[in-house]
Amino acid sequence: MRRAGRVVAEMHAAIRAALRPGVTTLELDRIAAEVIARRGATSNFLGYMGYPNVIQASPNSVVLHGIPNRVPLEEGDIVSFDCGAIVDGYHGDAAFSVGVGTISAAAQRLIDTTREALEAGIATLAPGSRLGDLGHAVETTAAEAGYSVVRGYVGHGIGTAMHEEPDVPNHGRPGKGYRVQAGEVFAIEPMFCAGRAKVSTGSDGWTVSTRDGSLAAHWEHTVAVTDHGPEVLTAP
Predict the structure, then answer these.
(1) What are the residue ranges of helices labelled H in the chain?
(2) How many CB atoms lie within 10 A of CB 87?
C-alpha cells in the first residue's frame, strides 16, 4: 500500500505542476494516467461502477465525483482532484483542493481549513481510538470556521478494495463508533462547503454539487494505523 500511495502522491504532484489558467481537466486526467502507466500501476477509478476517467476533477461548487472535460479552467477557480492507484492488488486513494492562479482569500481559507480538518482527524488515529473521535475533530474544525460538513459522503476502509468497511464519517461523538486497531488502513476525506451542505447529483449520475452554488473543498489521505501513530501512505 505504500507503493500505491507513492503513485497517488506522484499523480498529485504532476497535476499541481501542470495546473494553470487555460488547462482543461481532461488534459490533467491524461497527465495522471501517464504517471500510472510509467509506474506500472493500475487506475482504481477508471471503469469503477462505470466511471469514465482516471481522476475526479471537481471545480468550485462541485464537491466530488466531477468528470474531467474540455472546459478550460479559469483564473480564480478552485478545483478538488481525487486520484487513486492499485499496485500488486493494493489501493491508494487521496484528494486535494487547490486554486487556479490567484484566488480569493475566502476560497483559500476554505481550502486551508479543510486540509487542517484532515490533519486533525488523522491525529486522532491510534490503536483503541474511536472513529467518533476522528469525526468529531473534523466536524469541530468546520464549525469553528463557519463551514458545513457534507454528511452523505464519507471516508472508508481501504486495502485490497478501494472501498472497504467501515465507513469513516466526518462527524461524530468522542468515544463512540468503531474501535480502531493497529494494522488497519483508512481513507480519511473531509468535504466542507462555504454555504449549506445540501448537495445534488447531476444528470451524468456522478457529479455532486452544492445546491446553493457555494464553494466546496475536499481533502483525503490513505492512512495506516500503527503502534507508533498514524502513517500517511499518500503523502509526498
Answers:
(1) 2-18, 25-38, 105-123, 131-145
(2) 20
Cα–Cα distance between 15 and 31 in angstroms, integer? Answer: 7
Angle of helix 131-145 versus helix 105-123 axis, rounded to 10: 160
Domain coordinates in residue numbering, the chain: 2-232
Determine whether 203 is exposed, middle or buried from the number of CB atoms within 10 Å of its CB (0-12, 13-18, 19+).
exposed
For range 56-79, the mean pLDDT: 98
Query: In the CATH hierarchy, which fold is given to the domain comprising 2-232?
Result: Creatine Amidinohydrolase (3.90.230)
Average of per-residue pLDDT across 187-205: 98
Cα separation, 19 vs 185, in Å, equals 30
Among 215, 235, 15, 2, CA closest to 110: 215
Residue 203's pLDDT is what? 97
| Alpha-carbon span 130 to 121, nearest angstrom | 11
Q: Is the pLDDT of residue 236 over 90?
A: no
Which residues are CB-contacts of 92 (< 8 A; sequence separation ≥ 6)? Answer: 1, 4, 5, 6, 7, 8, 84, 85, 86, 158, 222, 233, 234
pLDDT at 128: 97
β-sheet bridge partners, residue 201: 208
| Gap between the Cα atoms of 105 and 19, Å rounded | 19
CA dihedral 126, 147, 156, 64 (to 10 degrees): -150
